[in-house]
Amino acid sequence: MEQLSNLIGGFGDILSPSALLFVLIGALLGTAVGVLPGLGSAMAVALLLPLTFVLEPTNALIMFTGIYFGGLFGDSISGILMNTPGNSTAIASAFEGYRMAQSGRAAQALATAAIGAFIGGTVASVLVVFFAPTLAELATGFGPAEFFALAVLAFIAISAVVTDSAVRGLAALAIGLVLAMIGIDQPTGTARFSFGSSALLDGIPIVVITVSLLALGEVFHQAAKAGGRGTQDTVLPSGRPWLSGSEFRAALPAWLRGTGYGLPFGVIPAGGAEVPTFLSYGTERRLDRRRAKPMFGRGAIQGVAGPEAAGNATAGTAMGALLALGLPTSATAALLLAAFQQYGLQPGPLLLERSGDIVWPLLAGFFLAMVVLLILNLPFAPLWAQLLRVPKSYLYAGIAVFASFGVYAAGASIIDLVIMLVIGVLGLAMRLYDIPIAPVLIAVILGPLAEYSLRDAMANSENDPAVLVSSPITIGLYVLLLAGLGFAAWRRVAERRRADV
Predict the structure, then answer these.
(1) Which of 88, 114, 251, 259 is the 20 to 30 Å CA partner of 415?
(2) pTM for this prediction
(3) Could you tell me which residue ranges the DUF112 domain spans (predicted)?
């Protein structure tokens, strides 16, 4: 019970008006920057990091907890309202969240996201306090072969299992892998798919691809549906910032399942919460098909609840890996590592012994940030939703402008804007031909991880392919994959038989 007493002592250090003010300021600033298309939570941490250097260490780190989790919620706001996730970890929840917003339920979608963030983040914070060393040990079991198996599982699960058409899903996966391969091949120095353009040698940033496919592709699609006539139609959100009893009952299992997906991934250096959020989305979509009246594609609340809880649970346990091992498992965690080092803290196994007077208030700040964000964002949900009262023609024009600003701000390159237009047209074509977007994004995000992991595994084993199935983790992941494929095939055959009856 030593951890509990230390945590109580940490609360005693931070429960003061000044600490509450710093958490509130951090949450507001993190959300405000995270909501801007193309910036996101990682950019929020990067931009606001210098502001904390003038503060006393405990207050600075407490403020950072608000920035960290506030930026994550800002990612979801832009994804739900404008179909432009601030970060790739908010992509999965944007699919159904945006459809909820388009049907007038933006406030409910944001409330679902806020509660999911609270549940996932709080459970993760509890585990960090009591089981950080144990969670960190999970990461040591993942080598190149395990990472490759994890990526393959994500590829097939999203493209072939949870999509309506396996052929279209695999086609989308291929598009994403091609986009991920553009640029210099690091081991050999060979240019791939650059077409002789030096601008493509560094590859296409994930921000450009995400904003182009989701935001600009949707803008082009809406313009195509309007037929060039323009429209002043508005989407009128309801002002209810809370969930009805039926909505809460529908979302609760998804919150819990999403939290379960996200917890272990925070300690695996796979780059962020993309895998658990997409796996959660796929699970909820698969379960939705069993219902008498499936809601996915029309704004399913489970499609927001699961990924949001998964993303924040991953963010919470990522802090555990950072504190216990000094292992940053995402770009945002790497920035936080720099912040810790700025104050003379060296995350690792001895951190709690050497700097417990700062670390325990920081851990208590996680819980405080969760509560502040929940109290702050539930009443603000209808206010954010009022953005959708803007006439569609103005709204989508504004989305295009902000998306362009975000892409340019991320790389300060005119070429990125040209690439954005090209991929935006690709996004329009995919919508017109009913090719899913999710497999493209998961391939772009995890494609490099899969490639590098495969090469490392083969190099370390002298090109022996048996290394890919040489551990219990890899075998378990592939068995899970085969079981999913078998279930998907059985389900589709059963659906065809019912249709023929």
Answers:
(1) 88
(2) 0.67
(3) 20-441
